[in-house]
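To: structure desk
From: M.T.
Subject: fold request, one chain
Message: Could you run this one when you get a chance? Sequence is below, nothing fancy, just the single chain.
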Amino acid sequence: MTDTPGLPEGYEISTDPDRVDAARVHRWLSTDAYWALGRSREKQDRAIAGSLNFGVYASPSGEQVAYARVVTDRATFAWLCDVYVDPAVRGKAIGTALVGAVREHLRPYGLRRIMLATHDAHGVYERLGFTALERPDQWMVLAFGP
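Reply: Done. Structure tokens follow.
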């Protein structure tokens, strides 16, 4: 397994749900993330409430600069989703550090797998040990809409 990359100086990661800037996260995802365009604030708030949330914050201002959430039973399975880094801080390896922190946070649970879907960030996830499905023909999805 690859090493967990550290955050650049001046940033910190937290799983404290009270620190999540829900309005900012909603704005990021609903206006700039291809997978969540148009997502309502109410739906985003429910997603946050039902998930394990990770935020990256600038120190000492506390301003949130990145977000990820995990849907998990904390025993067998996790789905990593809604990974987003503010465009103003992209290119500083904040996203890689965030996903590495998620991986290490989940490791003690003994999960069988962590799943994710990405259209354009395969390299980020591959550096952290994620691989394409070995047997995609064994997986199915029930989609209720876009």
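Reply (cont.): The two ends are 34 Å apart (CA to CA). Let me know if you need anything else for the meeting.
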